[in-house]
Design goal:
It contains eleven helices and 20 strands. By secondary structure, it is α/β, with parallel strands linked by helices. The chain folds into two domains: about 10-220, Alanine racemase (TIM Barrel), CATH 3.20.20.10; about 240-370, Lyase, Ornithine Decarboxylase, Chain A, domain 1, CATH 2.40.37. The strands form four sheets. An eight-stranded parallel β-sheet has the order 8-7-6-5-4-3-2-9. It has a five-stranded mixed β-sheet with strand order 19-18-10-1-20. Helix 7 (about 140-150) packs parallel to helix 8. The longest helix has 18 residues, at about 170-190. It starts with a strand and ends with a strand. The mean pLDDT is about 95.
Length: about 375
């Protein structure tokens, strides 16, 4: 058994994409967000599974991520959502990748690199309330869209925004953002009717029926992780990722003896403690010591002491489970009738499931099935 292994169920990815398409409605297509190595799941197999599940677009954050998809043969539209350096424009043009524009300066930089034989595909972004990237006013965004439409070397492909509070059920602010976006889209479509309007993330797709527009951009939910931080089953999502290790050592710790750095665990009585060869360099957060349980032989076993870079300790008490060296340990996923969710880790670490999965390191071996 590998010291640390990530397993990814590609059939779960396909299922989640189909579910999101159904939720988005019949007039909306699906753009699968596969940035950050597909949220730690592995971009190439996941991107293909998402397309097999009905997605027709892929979205990433960086030029490098987009170019990697093209280098591996992905021909579908690829949207680069993040800020770009001027030096990256030419390569993205060559590979027909879509770029996001929110200033005249960047649009002019794109135009200067483009030609009638090498046109640029752009999406205009309106900041409706996220307060990060995007045109600061509808008038500016309308002007950018008009300029792109009039250009001989630019194609206006899309109109977009980003929702700040969609992960709060029926958020009033998200609904306000959508109204601002809808008014702007209506104005632009008077002269650019074919532009693809897209605003909804995973949460909005599942929670706000009128958020679909022409396309939804879903990330977290295609991996079967819940955008609201609850059990994914509540939204019929299937988690794709599991994380496993094995028992490398079992030893008796006598009353008063400690385990790990800083003596984070001191035995109150003679007890059995197991060590598994996985730690924070593999994505098991240091702060999770004493906060979560793992699964061995179908039962929950608590993590004790401080998680170290390469090892984590488990409290077996009197070892009534008869745990043995070599036994499989499920840190995230299912075993027998029990399940540990990414959301369990996120709640224990007072963070979100996005951060948990994108923090899983490169050391765990990836395995794909389904």
């Amino acid at each position: 058994m590998n010291r640390a292994e990530v397993s990814v169920d590609l059939d779960a990815v396909r299922h989640n994409c189909r579910l999101l398409l159904d939720a988005a409605g019949p007039r909306s297509s699906l753009c699968a967000v596969v940035k950050a190595d597909a949220y730690g799941h592995g971009v190439l197999p996941v991107a293909q599974a998402a397309l097999d599940g009905g997605a027709t677009w892929l979205a990433v954050a960086t030029a490098g991520e987009a170019l990697a998809l093209r280098a591996h043969g992905f021909k579908c539209p690829v949207l680069v959502m993040g800020a770009l350096e001027s030096s990256e424009i030419a390569e993205l043009l060559d590979q027909r990748c879509d770029m996001v524009v929110w200033t005249y300066e960047f649009l002019e930089a794109i135009e200067s690199c483009s030609s009638k034989d090498r046109t640029a595909r752009v999406h205009i972004k309106l900041d409706t309330g996220m307060g990060r990237l995007g045109a600061s006013s509808p008038d500016l965004a309308v002007g950018l869209a008009a300029r792109a439409t009039e250009s001989e070397v630019v194609e206006l492909i899309g109109l977009m925004t980003h929702l700040a509070t969609a992960d709060q059920h029926q958020s009033d602010f998200a609904l306000e953002q959508l109204k601002r976006f809808e008014l702007w889209v209506k104005a632009v479509k008077e002269f650019a009717p074919s532009a693809v309007a897209h605003a909804a993330n995973s949460a909005a797709t599942l929670d706000l029926p009128d958020a679909g527009f022409d396309m939804v951009r879903c990330g977290i939910a295609i991996y079967g992780l819940d955008p609201f931080g609850v059990n994914p089953a509540d939204n019929r999502l299937r988690p794709a990722l599991s994380l496993r290790s094995f028992v490398a050592s079992i030893r008796t710790v006598h009353a008063g003896q400690s385990v790990g750095y800083g003596r984070g665990f001191v035995a109150e009585m003679d007890s059995e403690v197991a060590t598994i060869p996985i730690g924070y360099a593999d994505g098991v957060r240091r702060s999770l010591g004493g906060q979560i349980s793992v699964l061995i032989r179908g039962a929950r076993v608590p993590v004790v002491g401080r998680v170290s870079m390469d090892n984590t300790s488990l409290y077996l008490a009197d070892n009534s489970l008869e745990v043995a060296v070599g036994d499989e340990v499920v840190l995230i996923g299912e075993q027998a009738t029990e399940q540990v969710l990414v959301e369990d880790w996120a709640n224990a670490a007072e963070t979100i499931n996005y951060e948990i999965v994108t923090s899983i390191g490169s050391r765990p071996k990836r395995r794909y099935f389904g």
